[in-house]
Structures are given as C-alpha cells and as structure tokens.
C-alpha cells in the first residue's frame, strides 16, 4: 500500500581527521567513527539502528577522511547487516547542511520519500521507526530528535522550544549564553526531500547578499555571514533557526539515553550505555561467567570471541574487550575498554581507563582514573603500544603511543 | 668505507614534532638531522651508509632516494622487525658493513650533533691498532650518563660505568664509534646493548680506545637540548667564519636564515636563531634562541624566544611565545596570545593564552 514508494535513505555525517582534536590521543591511530564502543565501531551503532527502518534503500557515510580509511569497514558492515553502505568523501567543507546538499543527486537516485540524517558521534537509542511514524503524522519538512537535559548543561547544545500539543518547533538557538530551554537537539533528523530546496534557498540568499555587498557598503559592514562561502550552509543556524515557528519543523522527544561522544572519556561512558542496551536488544552479545570455567563477570561486559580471559580474572561492570586481547590470572577490570592485541599480566588492575591496541600491562600494575568523563584526565588513556611495567601505577593520565612507563605517574600527559 | 647510523625508534621525546615527521628527518639548523651526519661521512670518503630503523620506513626511503642522487653516496635501510637495542642492528646489517677490504666502519647515533672529527678518528684508530675506537666528550654532570673511564695518555678504556653515584670521571660516551669488522663476530642478532655487553668485553681485552671530542657535542633528542645544541652548532659555524651565517643591522649574534625566507622591517633576530625555507617574518618581530621550521609565518610585532615553531604554523600579531614553547605542525597562535611553555600537538588553533607550561592536545 504505497510501501514501494516510501523508500528511505540514511545519511550519517562522520566528520574528518583534522576537524576534531578532542578525541586525541585515540584519534592519532584510528578515525573516530571507527573507534569501538561495546565491541562495535562507533558508526556501526547508528547503521544498525537505520536497518530497523522499513524500506531502507541505502546508507551513506559522509566525511572528510580518505576513502581507503573506510573501505574495509564499509564492505564488512554491508555484508554483515545486508544493507548497502557507501562512504562519500566531501572535497571541501560545506557545513552540516551543505554536506547533505552536496550529495543530493546521489541521495535522490533511490527516489526516497524520507531522508534520515544522523551525526556519527552521538550515543543514542536511535528510535528511528517511531520517529519516522511521528514525522509522517506531523506532515512537516523535518522532525528533530530532542531530549530533556539538566538546565545547567543545556547551553552546550542547540536548545529548542516546541509546542507541547502539536510538537511544532517554535524556536531554536545554538549554544546560547542565557537559558532558553532544557530540550536539546540530539543530532538526529528526518527530512522530506524539500530540505534540499530549503538549503538551496540559503545559498541563493547568500549569493544575493554578496552581490548586494558589492553594491552597498552598508551590507559589506554586516558581520554575519561575511566570510562564509555561498555553498556553506549550517543546519542549525541557517535552516533550523530561521524555519522555526513556520510550521515546517517538528520535534520528537526521546526519554532514552543520549550522549555526545567528543572525548575519549565520553567514549567509555557511551560504551557502557550501549552495553546496557545490549542487555535488552542483543543479550547474546554480552559475556557471562562465574569463575568456574570462565572468568567471573559482573554487570554488562563484552568479550570478543578471540580474546582470552583467565578464569580467575574478574571482569565488569562496563568492560569491553576487543580481539586477541589476553587477560591474565587474577586481573580485575572495571569500567574500561581493552583494545585489540592488549596483554594484561597477572593480578593487574584497570579502573576507568582505555588501554590502547597492542599495549601491555605488567604484573600487579594498576591503571586507573577518577571516572569523571568530562574531566580532561578523568579517564586514563594508554595509546597504541604502551608498555606499563610490573607494579607501576598510572593514575588520571594520558600516555601517547609507543611509550614505556617504568615509574608510576599521576595527573600527567606523557607525549 | 661504510657507516651505520642507529636511527631506532619513535622519537617520542621530540614530540610533537615527531608526530608529523620521523625524528631523523626533523630539521636542525635548517637541515634534516640525519643529513648533518651523512654529509660528514661523505666528506671523509664513506661510500655507503646503512640506516638502522624500526619506524616509518616508507617515509625514510622516500627521503633517501632524493639524497642518494644529490649527495652521490649509497644509502640503504636495515629494518629491525623487533627492537634490537644498540648493538643488535649492527649484526643485522652485517653484510652491508663488511666487505673484502677489511676496513673499519663507523657507527653513529642519529641524535648526536657534533663537529664530527672523523678523519682524526681514523688516524687515531690506525695509531693505536686496537679493535674499536669511541669518541668521548667531557660533561659537567657525568652521573646523568654512561661514564668512560680511560687511561689519559693512551686513551685505552678501562671500564664503563653507567650513571655513577660517585665521581669516576667526566668523559661520557659521545655515541660515535669506529669498529673493526671483527667486532661483529661478538654481536649476536638479538637485543644487545653495545655499552653494556659489547664494549666492556673489548675493553677487558684492552682493545678499546677512546678519543676526546674536540669541539661541541649535544644529544638533541629532546627540545631543551635541541635549543642548546643549536647555540653550540651556530657557535662552531662562527668559529669557522662560515658564510652561511646571516648578517645585517637586524641580526644579533649567530643566526641562520634560509635564502627563501623573508624578513620584514624593524625586526631584531638573534642570537641563536634558525629560520627555515619559505618562512615569512613580518615587520617588528623579535626572535631569539629559537627555531622556525619551514613555511612558518610570524606576524607583525610578535616576540618568540627559547621555542621551536613547527612547519607551516603561524604566530599571530603581538603574540609572545617563550620558555620552551614547542608548536607542532600547522599550529596557529592567534593575535595577542601569550604562550609560556605550551607544547601543542599538530593542527591546533591557540585562542587563549597558556600561562603555565602545559600540553595542548
């Protein structure tokens, strides 16, 4: 009943290498979207969520990374989830909406009735089928996923005001200095193809203003948009804010978890949220054990099938262990991500940390942190191939790749 | 004649510079560190240089192609698949280092900058007839290093003492050796330390001799020593009346300026400054005791001292950058910003002042 007409295309913005330096030092070794949370690449989570949408035709990943960085992942995830995923590289910055517009021909090839736009670095339950249904009921051009946050933290995001009955977006402002609303923009959107017309409208308007500037010196002095190229269109300031209150945009509120994954500390928190979600959606992915044949597991834990964990170790809660890791006898792991090929020797302890690929921790060594995900040194990060020698303690620190620690350190960044 | 340069690992002490470029290719006095050594070796007739590396061989190999032809010397890489210490790489490169001539070969550490008195070393080696010669240098604080205890008149080495707690001597291993091929017979292909295992054995046989390095010596593997090393190097250029040093009313002391760099009006440059190719130093800028890498733009009225500014960075107008500030590649310090010892990773913009030494990731 019209279902063959109602195809959906999803676009996931994945960013690029020099754009966000907040994810260092982990981003020195891997593109942020491919960093594993709860055992799956960060971008894998929104891709799986898109799969739940009926009539999903295609998923595009859009970013500034080199194609070869995503080639392997894209082919593997397409096979695994049986959904066509393709990486598209932006040649230059077009802004969050301009990027979408840049690939409109490709997106519209499948003649979709709806376009789902997601930011990759968002940790979320992605209630896309429900959101799509709500969007159809509203009948607008776009629906924005929103969540209620504490008033004190709202200023970090895009704040929205919506009509409580019709859910129409009445007002939108990005990172305001004063309090506007405790409902914020989650970075997940559903649009109809009219969005492209709206984006084009912004470009044209800017082009006209540029022409006007050449004619009128007054226009030339206006600070706003003075230095933006005409095809650089930002979703928040250029589309959402101006269109609010004009019966084009609506909101859908989620009461589930939501976090922005900007720092390595937040990736540990997000990994925990996804592990908790697995308990309901995919419990077979979580590990279990009671110390007899397998290690003692407490809370939500993911262990890659190729990892080896000694039965006397105690793992969890919130632990994710990647491929080929070796966890020795008597090891205690709490709230941590252990990446590929890591070796942790006997009786070592890890609490609130990320242990980088190929690193090794000596016997009775201890790597820990306060666990404050927002603090710069709140989660200890060991980069790739870091060696922590026997009995050494590393607290609230960040260690760049290829370092050997033979003395204990606290509150330090080690280059 | 052959030579081996121990290039080794990741150069972590020279981060953030070595996050962009492998350490031997980081410029010192406007020339890649390793080129200083390769040129000194070529000058005394070395025909083949082996680089013992274990990191980023592709980048090194590209560099080599360029310089092999330019310099007319054969350069090969010997890649360690596991770290082999300071002696193991020699065993690995054995086939490149010994030939039928039976001549001794040089071994250099890539972090060391000095006068390279290599011809004097060859003469010294011939005169004592031993198996191995090492260069030693006098330092003020010997207990930070490995001290070489030697007989003063002949130079015969009695023993090595690593980081001695009491004073045993003030000459330390300068990291430049001249070895007979027979030394290789004593080195196995496994992680081995030349100072702890190989040399003590040769010293016990009374076949190891040390020559005191005349002139300057510096291990420039970390930023503070890199800056001191530049002063010593430029000083030695001055002593030789080198035409490479800049002169003019805006120059104080020893300064090196690449010919493609542009310096504006009203600047005061020096002492101990190196300005790399393609740099633009705008008017009214004060530079002292610093290295400005290729492609940097220093804007008007800025002041930089005791710092290293990484490739293609910019320092804003009226900015003040001092006290061991190290900027990685492509770092942009905004106008009027103050940096006191900021260590900044590549591709960052500094929009607020750094009041105390800190690492900016």
TrEMBL record, chain A:
Domain Mannose-1-phosphate guanyltransferase C-terminal: residue ranges: 297-414
InterPro entries, alphabetized: GMPPB_C, Mannose-1P_guanyltransferase, NTP_transferase_dom, Nucleotide-diphossugar_trans
Stored SUPFAM superfamilies: Nucleotide-diphospho-sugar transferases
Origin superkingdom: Eukaryota
The Nucleotidyl transferase domain, residue ranges: 10-207
A UniProt-annotated Pfam family: NTP_transferase
MF terms (GO), sorted A to Z: nucleotidyltransferase activity
Protein family per UniProt: Belongs to the transferase hexapeptide repeat family.
Name this polypeptide is given: ADP-glucose pyrophosphorylase family protein
Organism: Forsythia ovata
UniProtKB/TrEMBL annotation, chain B:
Entry-linked CDD domains: M1P_guanylylT_B_like_N
Alphabetically ordered keywords of this record: GTP-binding, Nucleotide-binding, Nucleotidyltransferase, Transferase
Classification via Gene3D superfamilies: Hexapeptide repeat proteins (2.160.10.10), Spore Coat Polysaccharide Biosynthesis Protein SpsA, Chain A (3.90.550.10)
Coiled-coil boundaries: none
Protein name: mannose-1-phosphate guanylyltransferase
Matching Pfam families: GMPPB_C, NTP_transferase
EC number, UniProt record: 2.7.7.13
């Amino acid at each position: 009943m019209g279902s063959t007409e109602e195809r959906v295309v999803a676009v996931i913005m994945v960013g690029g290498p020099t754009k966000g330096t907040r994810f260092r030092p982990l981003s020195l070794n891997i593109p942020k979207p491919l960093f594993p949370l709860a055992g799956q690449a960060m971008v894998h989570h929104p891709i799986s969520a898109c799969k739940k949408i009926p009539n999903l035709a295609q998923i595009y990943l859009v970013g500034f990374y080199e194609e070869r960085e995503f080639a392997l992942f894209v082919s593997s995830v397409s096979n695994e989830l049986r959904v066509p995923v393709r990486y598209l590289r932006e040649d230059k910055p077009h802004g969050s909406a301009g990027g979408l517009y840049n690939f409109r021909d490709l997106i519209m090839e499948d003649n979709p009735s709806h376009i789902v736009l997601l930011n990759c670095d968002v940790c979320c339950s992605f209630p896309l089928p429900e959101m799509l249904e709500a969007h159809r009921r509203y009948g607008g051009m776009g629906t924005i996923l929103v969540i209620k946050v504490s008033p004190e933290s709202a200023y970090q995001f895009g704040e929205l005001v919506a009509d409580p009955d019709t859910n129409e977006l009445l007002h939108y402002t990005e990172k305001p200095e004063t309090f506007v609303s405790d409902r914020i923009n989650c970075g997940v959107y559903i649009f109809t193809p009219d969005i492209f017309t709206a984006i084009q409208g912004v470009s044209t308007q800017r082009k006209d203003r540029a022409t006007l500037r050449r004619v009128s010196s007054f226009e030339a002095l206006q600070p706003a948009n003075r230095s933006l190229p005409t095809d650089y269109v930002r979703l928040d300031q250029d589309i959402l804010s101006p269109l609010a209150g004009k019966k084009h945009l609506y909101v859908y509120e989620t009461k589930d978890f939501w976090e922005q994954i900007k720092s390595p500390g937040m990736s540990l928190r997000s990994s925990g949220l996804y592990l908790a979600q697995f308990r309901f959606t995919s419990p077979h992915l979580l590990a279990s054990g009671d110390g007899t044949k397998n290690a003692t597991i407490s809370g939500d834990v993911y262990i890659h099938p190729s990892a080896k964990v000694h039965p006397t170790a105690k793992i969890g809660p919130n632990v994710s262990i990647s491929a080929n890791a070796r966890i020795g006898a008597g090891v205690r792991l709490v709230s941590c991500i252990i990446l590929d090929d890591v070796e942790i020797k006997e009786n070592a302890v890890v609490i609130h940390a990320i242990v980088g690929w190929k690193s090794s921790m000596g016997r009775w060594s201890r790597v820990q942190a306060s666990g404050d995900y927002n603090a710069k040194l709140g989660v200890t990060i060991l980069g790739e191939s870091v060696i922590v020698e026997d009995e050494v303690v590393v607290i609230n620190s960040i260690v760049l790749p290829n370092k050997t620690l033979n003395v204990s350190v606290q509150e330090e960044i080690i280059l | 004649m052959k030579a081996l340069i121990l290039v080794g690992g990741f150069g972590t002490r020279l981060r953030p510079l070595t996050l962009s470029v492998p350490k031997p290719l980081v410029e010192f006095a406007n020339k890649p560190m390793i080129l200083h050594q390769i040129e000194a070796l070529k000058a005394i007739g070395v025909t083949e240089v082996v680089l013992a590396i274990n990191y980023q061989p592709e980048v090194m190999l590209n560099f080599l192609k360029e310089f092999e032809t330019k310099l007319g010397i054969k350069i090969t890489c010997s890649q360690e698949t596991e770290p082999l210490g300071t002696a193991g790489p020699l065993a690995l490169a054995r086939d490149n280092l010994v030939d039928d001539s039976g001549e001794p070969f040089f071994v250099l550490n890539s972090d060391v900058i000095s006068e390279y008195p290599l011809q004097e070393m060859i003469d010294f080696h011939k005169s004592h007839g031993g198996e191995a010669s090492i260069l030693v240098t006098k330092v003020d604080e010997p207990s930070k290093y490995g001290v070489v205890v030697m007989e003063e008149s002949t130079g015969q080495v009695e023993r090595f003492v690593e980081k001695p707690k009491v004073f045993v001597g003030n000459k330390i291993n300068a990291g430049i050796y001249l070895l007979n091929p027979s030394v290789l017979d004593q080195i196995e292909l496994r992680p081995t330390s030349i100072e702890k295992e190989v040399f003590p054995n040769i010293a016990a046989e009374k076949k190891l001799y040390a020559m005191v390095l005349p002139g300057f010596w510096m291990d420039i593997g970390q930023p503070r020593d890199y800056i001191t090393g530049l002063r010593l190097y430029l000083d030695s250029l001055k002593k030789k009346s080198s035409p490479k040093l800049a002169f003019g009313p805006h120059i104080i002391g020893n300064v090196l300026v690449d010919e493609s760099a542009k310096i504006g009006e009203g600047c005061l440059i020096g002492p101990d400054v190196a300005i790399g190719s393609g740099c633009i130093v705008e008017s009214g800028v004060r530079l002292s005791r610093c290295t400005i890498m290729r492609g940097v733009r220093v804007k008007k009225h800025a002041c930089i001292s005791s710092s290293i500014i990484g490739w293609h960075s910019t320092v804003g107008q009226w900015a003040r950058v001092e006290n061991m500030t190290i900027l990685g590649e492509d770092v942009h310090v905004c106008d009027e910003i103050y940096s006191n010892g900021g260590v900044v990773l590549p591709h960052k913009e500094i929009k607020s002042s750094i009041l105390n030494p800190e690492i900016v990731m």
